[in-house]
């Protein structure tokens, strides 16, 4: 039995120190996932609190599938809770028209520090930010995104295309200003 499995078993037996160890181990990662959706740290703190309550109350139903499965499970909970928060508190605005994407090449993403890229994504409008996160980081299809957000598949593709266009401009501006 590996360390993750032992930790889960300890939590299931009610060991509060094990709960703290899980929190300490994954709270930074959960914050990074949450920041992709919710750039406001005060709002994110509330969402993460709800996430960890959900994690600890549903851990008995979690099926361990090997190293990394806890991390993936936590990421899904954070992404879902963040989307629910945004749906309750932000105004999503979607469109079905897909703009022409004239410049589909890599705009230099690899040259951007991760925290800067996260900040750029955080500046996107809520709908764009949600779709790009779900498509790129959660690796969902536009059909899955549409089902999750209650929109049409074309709306998801449109939001993704528009988000890429805005990010491309931000990245090019950053690269120009920082001469990377």
TrEMBL record:
It comes from the Bacteria. Keywords: Sigma factor, Transcription, Transcription regulation. Residues 22-91 form the RNA polymerase sigma-70 region domain. SUPFAM superfamilies: Sigma2 domain of RNA polymerase sigma factors (SSF88946), Sigma3 and sigma4 domains of RNA polymerase sigma factors (SSF88659). One of its GO terms (biological process) is DNA-templated transcription initiation. GO terms for molecular function: DNA binding; sigma factor activity. Residues 118-165 form the RNA polymerase sigma factor 70 region 4 type domain. It holds the Pfam family Sigma70_r2. Belongs to the sigma-70 factor family. ECF subfamily. This is RNA polymerase subunit sigma.
């Amino acid at each position: 039995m590996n360390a993750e499995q032992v930790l889960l078993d300890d939590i299931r037996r009610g060991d509060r120190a094990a709960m703290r160890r899980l929190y300490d181990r994954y709270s930074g990662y959960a914050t990074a996932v949450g920041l992709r959706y919710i750039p406001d740290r005060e709002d994110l703190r509330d969402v993460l609190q709800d996430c960890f309550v959900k994690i600890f109350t549903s851990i008995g139903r979690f099926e361990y599938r090997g190293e990394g499965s806890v991390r993936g499970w936590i990421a899904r909970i954070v992404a879902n809770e963040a989307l629910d928060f945004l749906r309750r508190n932000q105004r999503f605005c979607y469109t079905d028209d897909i703009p022409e994407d004239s410049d589909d090449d890599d705009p230099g993403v690899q040259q951007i520090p991760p925290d800067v890229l996260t900040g750029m994504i955080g500046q996107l409008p809520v709908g764009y930010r949600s779709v790009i996160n779900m498509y790129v980081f959660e690796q969902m299809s536009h059909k899955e995104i549409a089902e999750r957000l209650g929109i049409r598949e074309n709306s998801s593709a449109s939001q993704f295309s528009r988000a890429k266009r805005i990010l491309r401009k931000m990245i090019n501006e950053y690269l120009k200003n920082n001469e990377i």
